[in-house]
Amino acid sequence: MTYRRGLRFGISAVALAVVMFVTAAVVANSGDAPASPRQGLPGAVPATAVASNGDLSNLIASLQARLRRLPDDAVSWSTLGLAYVQQARVTGDPSYYTKAAGALNRSLQVSPDENAPALTGKAALAAARHDFDRALRLARKSQQINRYNSVNQGVLVDALIELGRYQQAFRALQRMVNLKPGVPSYTRVSYSYELRGDLAGARYAMRRALDVAYTPDDRAFALFQLGELAWNSGRLKAAGRLYDKGMSEAPSYVPLLYGRAKVAAARGDTAQALEDYRTVIQRFPSPAYVAEYADLLRSIGRHREARRQDDLIRAQQRLFQAAGVNVDLEIALYDATHGRPKQALEAAASAWQQQRRNVFVEDAYAWALHVNGRDEAALVHARAAARLGTRSAVFAYHRGMIEKALGMDAAAERSLRRALAINPYFSPVQAPQARRALAALTRDR
Predict the structure, then answer these.
(1) What is the rounded CA–CA span in Å between residue 265 and residue 274?
(2) CATH number of the domain bearing residue 381
């Protein structure tokens, strides 16, 4: 399957800003006196490279040591909570979300009034758990205390985007840029352009983020996102160059190796792709990475190995759910593509009922309805998924297959051609299916 990129910035840019805030908070609170409070499955990739696992572990250890000396330091508790949120993203271990909740609740127990950092931390945690309505409420509550916290503004932007409230989100994003232009805000600007199909604008904004990135990890993060923009446009050579350049900046940054694996598979270098995917999964067993590895195995007929990866994905989903992470959207996409239509529709309907009316939920709902034979309803959502003009090969493929099922042959042909024109490598399983469906349409004409 191909996982969506909707949280690529909604989660990663939150984490980027959060780590910057966490680091600043630790520096600001490095003295012995307690400080008074003031002030986006599991995405497709780990949140960001801004802080490595080692850096975060050291940070967490320092905060824990400080809190043993100063257990009533509310800001350090909130900072620890934010660090745990990021550690969950960097390691792929959702148990850190439970630890984050404990630390943030402790901050509010110590300082229940006007504690904006703890509220921002709880908003970031809610976003990480995909509870975007709660994230929005908490971010707004924190904003009432301090209107000038760019980290909180970023969480607010991301929650609005994930809820499909795009015009509000774009206005909030402009305010974030005004508050603090930098990697987190430029990253979100890039995503806002990409959502609207303006890839030139998306690249420009991401290059601005690269220009102001001042550490190798920050630069690797920006180069990966530029690589993703190229990949999702079918620009294979450009994507490969950008992933390789990023690896020269930060060789241990897993998403770059994932990008290299995708490019190798698209070029037909299956042995290299399999080797890279195995390394990626050993370092960071994200459900999204495992799913793409499984699909690559399927595409070359290694079905038994693919089923073992499927079992791993199910186990990971249970771990995320146990940690309070809502994975309805991810389950819907995965199950719809892997022969579990009933479960896919239940999960997609659940995401929709939670008021997540963004274009990615529209697409997932459309696809789940299609695999359940409800194509007329599916087409309504597939059309809604295109309302911003997003250039997505997956969206176009899903719409084309729905139109084909409805006997709308001319429309289906246009949609399938569009999918393959946008990115002919978008999935090792679905891209060949798109080509076969297109061939059948033209043969029957």
Answers:
(1) 8
(2) 1.25.40.10
